[in-house]
Every structure is written in C-alpha cells, then in structure tokens.
Fold these 4 entries.
Entry 1:
Amino acid sequence: MRAVVALTPMHGVTVEGERSDHELVQDARGGDHQAFEALVRRYSERAFRAAYRVLRDPSSSEEILQEAFIKAYKGLHGFESRSSFYTWLYRIVVNLALDRRRSEARAPSVEWDDSVSGRVDPRASGPVALNPELDSQRLRVRALIVEGVQGLPEGQREVLLLREVDGLSYEEIAVSMGISKGTVMSRLHYARKKMVTFLEGHGVTPEDVT
C-alpha cells in the first residue's frame, strides 16, 4: 500500500486495459492491490489539480492527494457506487483540502463564473490592498464561501465543486454523476443562487469583495 500512495501526479491519464472503474473497485475490494494502483494512476492527475485549485500550493496538494488515496483505499468497502469512483474520490480530496485551508486559517481559492463571479469572487478584486481591515474582510468573505458551499445539498454541492473547482464541463459532470446535462445545469443554477442568498444573508455585498 505504501508504494501505491507514494505515486505522484502524472501528466496524462493512464488507461488500464479494458477494466472499468467498477471492475477495478471490485477487484481492489477483493485484495487486488494492482487494481487500486490502476485507479491511482488513472485519477491522480485530476485529483491533484482539484487539490491544487483549493490550496494553490504543490507540496500541500501532494500531501492531500496521498491522504485522499489512503482514505479512499480504507473506505472502499463503504463505497456504494451510487456515484462514479472519481466523483467519490473528488469529494474526499476537496473536503480534505478545505479542511486544510480552514486549519491554516486561510481561505480556498474557489473559482466562480457567470453571474456569481462578479459578486462573490474575492480574487476578482485586483491587487491586494495594503489595508489590514480590508484584508480581514476578504478573509471573512472567503470563509463564508467555504461555509456556504458545505451547507449546500449534496447533489448541488457536488455539481458546484465539479464545475467551479475542478473545471469539468456540463457533459463531463453529467457522465461522472450519472445524471442528465439538464439536471447538471439545474443543480448548478440553484447552487449559485443559494450561495448568493447565503452571502447576502451574512451581509456580504458586491462592495465587500471589490
């Protein structure tokens, strides 16, 4: 197992023969360590990118990646296959990364777009101002974003993170979660609305992030 989690993210996805994720998971549950190594090779790069988008630090992202694969390996028997293996792994990675950011009293770099981005993206504010009070306010807003995301219904949170953090297309999210593209768009729409409502309910206005 130690050799498995020591793998570093690769540039490019390795396809392990014709075995599907489901088959690899089943084999890994049965004690086939090579099957789990195949899953590591298949998804390590994407999972690393997910961690990096939250942490913006390669070393910390690698640590989270390995911690996530260890947690996934230990939790394989609890994986019910209602979502894809990567979606399940992705959720583990992002939750661990967000926990790391909170423990370090720093905020995750969550990417937003469309109508939400101009209202809640602290990074859209341009150069960092040399103003401790303003910096503190920005950190508060970012912490609220984390809290708001964690408070979303699971399906909406999953879609939002897959789209805004991992950068998946609507089609990729639909395939990953086993739902229609229309459902993806609907969940994303409501997730974004709830985030704006949540932030406004905590007194966050566009002026607070400019």
Entry 2:
Amino acid sequence: MKLGFEDAHTPYTSGSQSARAWTERWVRSQVYCPNCGSDSVSAFPNNSPVADFFCASCSEEYELKSQKSSFGTKVLDGAFRTKCDRLAASNNPSLLLLNYDRKQLSVVNLLVVPKHFFIREIIEERKPLKATARRAGWIGSYILLNQVPASGKIFIVRDGQPQSKESVLAQWKKTLFLRNEGLEARGWLIEVMKCVEAIGRREFDIDDVYGYEGHLSRLYPGNQNVRPKIRQQLQYLRDRGYLDFVSRGRYRLRSQV
C-alpha cells in the first residue's frame, strides 16, 4: 500500500477541494474492502445521499471523512434524518476516517468503523441552521466516535504504517455477529462491550461488569432487570467468540487480532 498522493496537481484553488480530490483518488487506488478483502473499492457518483464508495464484490458501502487533524470525539456528518433512516438499512455505509499530512501529501491514519456499530445512540442531532443561512432550518448530525468501542475502530493505516490485511480482515470478522441483531439488541451488546473494555483488563469477573449497572440503568430506564440482562449479553458474547468463559462468573476478552 502506497501512502503518498501520487498526483498532487488538481484544478482546484481551494485547499479543501484539492484534499478531497487527493484522498478520494487515493482510496480508489489503494484501499481494499475490509469486509471481503477485494483489492479495491469503487466510487459512487458525486452527491450520493450518504455513501462515497462501494465494493463490487460484496456490495459493502463506505462513507469517507478526511481531514488534516486527528479526529476527536465527534465527527461532523450529513443530514440527521437521512442518517437515522439509514441505520437499519442493509446498505447503511461503514465509515472510513482518513487523516493526511498536507506537507508530505500522504496518508497518516485510516480507520474504518463497520456499519454494525452504528446505532441511534452514536448519532447526535445538531441545531437547525439559522434563518439567515442559505439552507435555513437544515439539521445536520454528529457521529459520536467516543461512543464506539475500540473493537469498532479498525485501523488500516496507523501512524503512517499500513496494518496487515490479515489483521484488518480478522478484526472486521470478529464483530460481524452484530449484524444479525436488530438496533435495540445491538445497542445492548455494544454498551456491554464498552463496559468490558472500560474494566481495562482482558480477564474480569462478572461483578466488574455489574459495577456499570447504574450506567446501564440510566441508558435503559425501562429495563428493571439489568443484572440478568448483563449476564445474557455476556453469554451471547461468549457464544459468538468475542469472550472466553474462564470459570464460573469469570471471562476473558479475546485478542482483537
């Protein structure tokens, strides 16, 4: 994988337009599909509602966000209602986040958030544009990147170093079981996954997860049986190979690679 933008000349005088042209061209020429491993992805026509790229082999779709600085806790995205309507759709796109070095004209980081980590809780509604704006009343959205568990942020390039394709495909495959669940069920599973990661140890006791009972109760106030729900989610994650059962009430988080 070459990280440099081979042709840095564009017809644009705007730096942001030039960067978009560079990064989109680079994705088309260098990025493989992390879902199926196909050697390349193709571009949608300009101004497609949500997605920018698709894989001709498996039909996975991708939305690209690129910028010079590292991505923070929130990622600016498109229309809020469109994003929410697409959450349960089979063609809801996965998200590619690309950081580039403007001076070196090269890619620094590229990570992908698989679409099965997109639930309503990670989409934040922005305030409507003011009446004086060209698109007055339009409501955009943020993607709350800090609400995605670490297993849902897969680096293809990290700190200027391409990651092995085998590792990327394995990490992607590890959480594909989430696609078999509806939005609400996925929400519970993802929240418990985040609790497990927050413990900070690969091996943990169920009581460690019970420590997040109050947090989960606030997220799901209609559920009056949070501890049984936690046990159910841990058993499901064990059955899907995300966790290993060590002994009664004790689990181990499997390696992410």
Entry 3:
Amino acid sequence: MGMLDKKVAVVTGSAQGIGKAIAKKLAEAGATVVIVDRTIESSTEAAEEIKALGFAALPIQCDVANAGEIDVMIKKVQETYPTIDILVNNAGVTRDNLLMRMNEQDWDLVMNINLKGPFLLTKAIAPIMMRQRWGRIINVASVVGLMGNAGQANYASSKGGLIALTKSVAKEFASRNITCNAVAPGFIETPMTAKLPEKVKESYIAAIPLSRFGTSDDVANVILFLASDAAGYVTGQVIGIDGGMFMR
C-alpha cells in the first residue's frame, strides 16, 4: 500500500524538470497523476514515461492562466476519475530584467502564470475537495519570494504573492479538512543552473550552508509529505528547500 493509494493528483508544469519529478514521486506513492503542461505533446511524453514505470498518468494540455481551459481540463479529469484530491501548483516562468528595463508584457506574463494560475486552479478544484472533505493544495513558491532578488521583481512578486495566497486559502478551507502549504525552493539543479559559469556556481554554493545545489527529488520529497495523511495537521506553512540559505 502506498501513501497516496486511490488519490488523484493534478500537477501543473509537470512535463519536465521539478514538475516531472514531483509527478513521478506522487505516482510512486500510489497516486494517479494528471500531467498538465502547455502542449499535449509534452504532457503525453511525460505521462508515457511514468506509465512505462508501471504507474497511472493522464496527460492534459492546459494554459493555467486561462479559466476556460482549466474548466475543460477538470471535465476531462472527471470523465475518468471521480475525485481530485491533490493539487500541486508548480507551473511557472521567469522573464528576468532590472526593474527599469522590465516591460509591462514580461511583468504580466509572469504574474499571470505564477500567481493568477494558482488562483484560478484553486478556485476551480476546491469545490471538489470541499464536497469530499479532504484535499491537499501545495504551491511551489521560491526563496526569492521571501528574500527578493535583483533583476527578478516580477518573479519575486509573483512568488511572494503565492505565499500570501497560500496562507489565505489555508484559513478559508481548513474547516473542510483541506490543507494548503507552500514550498520555497532555493537553487535547484536544472538545465538552467547547469549552464552557469563555474565561478557563479561557486559563489551561489558559498551562500548555502549545506554547500550544494538542491535536486528535483529534494523538492518532490517534501511535496510528497505535504500531500499525504502524515501532514494532516500542517497548513498555511512555507517550507524552505534551500540548504539553509534563507533561515526564517
């Protein structure tokens, strides 16, 4: 028996990177995972990879900033599965620039996907969780949402807003046995960080007490805990996954 047997988990931005690691981890624990990404091709590829491991996955294309597409996505899920038990708002983008050089389009894009998307998805899926009186909502924020970062005013604002949304949702839905928490990853090993010059990597690692970048599994392990019954008395919290870089 897995920790998440018979649970259905919607994971956005899960066709690659951290999102795919999260989906795999939840699937390994027994959940059926809904792979949500911007294209059906990328969603299907990730879902087939999970199925090849012997787990259940359903690929769906959805723009998380589009309420109409979210409604269609939920209807497709419910055509196959009666419940949605877990929502992981992982989809996110960056459009980095100094504030004085940042254009309005890049501000809006980041805010729409990183903050509006979780708002729309939570609003759409929460009624299902409320009816069954059980749910887990987990938002993937960032350490920069807690400490800010030069050149990332849009991204930091979106992640700071996501943290505030997390706390508000936790208070609103607690009476229905729905928890809402956030994780705040720091520097995680990704194709993007792999391209950084060695001197830049060294400077980042010097600021991390554990002296290494995190891995996608480091993030996925914490999310698995928050998605399970083991975290039934944890809500409204922001858990840093940053090697001790930012201690609150």
Entry 4:
Amino acid sequence: MSSTAVVGDPVLELRGATLSLGGRELWSDLDLQLQPGAFLAVLGPNGAGKSSLIRAILGDLRLRTGAVQVQGVARGASGTTVGYIPQQRLFDRGVGLRARDLVGFGLDGHRLGLPLPGRERRSRIDAALDRTGVLHLADAPLGTLSGGEQQRVRIAQALIARPRLLLCDEPLLSLDPGHQIAVTEAIDDYRRETGAAVLFVTHDVNPILDRIDQVLYLGPRGHRLGRPREVLSTEVLSDLYDAHVDVLDVHGRIIVVAGPADDEQHGLVDELPAASAGRSA
C-alpha cells in the first residue's frame, strides 16, 4: 500500500460532527483529519450518509453538532480550494456543450460575465484534459461521449482549479473496468504530484485498495476509521452490522459475505459493499 500523506496542518478536519436528515441521524461524533497527500475511502451501505458527508463538507448540509474545516477555514467561507467529482449522470445525446467548455467552467464558471479568451486559459484547459486522457475529445459535444469519457471530462473540470482537497462521490459507478482504472489513475496521479488530499466515496473498495491510506466505514451501528485491514475485518463489520459478516481476502481482493440468512439477516448481503463482483450495494 502506497502513501504520500504528510504530517502537518490537515487539509480537512471534522470535529464531533453529527448529521441528521429528515429526523434520522446518519452518523454522530465523527472526528476526522486528512493530511496533505492522504487518500481516504468512505464505505458503507445505502443510506449510511456517505454522499451526505461530502455535501456537509461542501457546506450544502448543516451539521447538527460539531464543525468542519478545510485548510483551517469553516466551510462556506471564501479562499478554500475544493474539487468535486459528482456521481456519473450521462449528458443527453443532444447536448452540444463541448468537453473543453465544461472543463472551463471549473476554472472561471463561478465568475460573473463571460470568461475572457486567452492563451493561458486554453492551455490550462488542454492540460487538464490531457491529464485525464481525453485531450483528443476537447471539441467533441458531451452528448456524443461514452459514460467513461464523460466522467474523465468531469475529473478534468474538478482538477483544473488545482484543488488541495478532492471530493469524489462514487466516481467509478457504472464504469467498465478499463475506465475504472483510467479514472482511478488520473485521481491518484494528481494526488501524488500535488500533495492534494482525496476523500473517495465508493461501494467497491477493490479498484482503489492498493492506493488508499485509510478507510472510514459508516455502518448501521456507528462508524470506524483506520487502515484498510484494520477496518475491513470480520470482527469490525460484524460489530457495525450487529450480525455475523465474513471478510475474505482472495488474491488481494476483499470479499464481504453475510452469515446464513434468517429473518433478521435477510438482505444483508445486498447492503454490503466491496463484493468481489463489484456489485453496487
């Protein structure tokens, strides 16, 4: 397992964080620090609050208790640099917006008025597209690109502003293995080159298992934070689900299997991530 994390001032910090939605508590008393260069995987069943964690960091959701800071600044304040890669949503085939246009929004889309044309702007857009392997598609309409190509353009959009923190919300969802590898490499290469911290929400940890430093597992009975082999264990997951769960290592892949089905455990397998087949939970 490789790491480029550097001990120092954290890029991201949550202290005593509790989040509730619709009267239901998703997670509570969450303490988390991400150092520069860290790569954290966030795992857990549907409804555990994985994507909501990202929304709380972005300032879109308000914590019930606790605080979140990015580079020492409370979320919602100016001057913090965060890149966000959303879950894949395909553009309609009729969308004429070009790949370079979408990436350009990541550079100056927040400013009032039209972006100024210029050699430097074009150079930065081309560099971001080249980093994710889609420079040859710069002038192609987004609606004509495959799902994997569209996702790589979104990553270029997230990276162009040179963020110090990269928030990835299931960026591998619905991608074939080839595009999963390309997307993962683009994100990890950026982390290694710049020292940015990465928070990566996923259902299947296997495609990134050899790259991550830590795992945050959000379960029905709390959460655990630690090194992958410390968190992804039979003892820990059984405790988080209050039911027996087997965690197997098969040729370097993590396989999570529930115990014998009964009235209380029925359906547990469908809620567990990190299955060897990469099936969504």
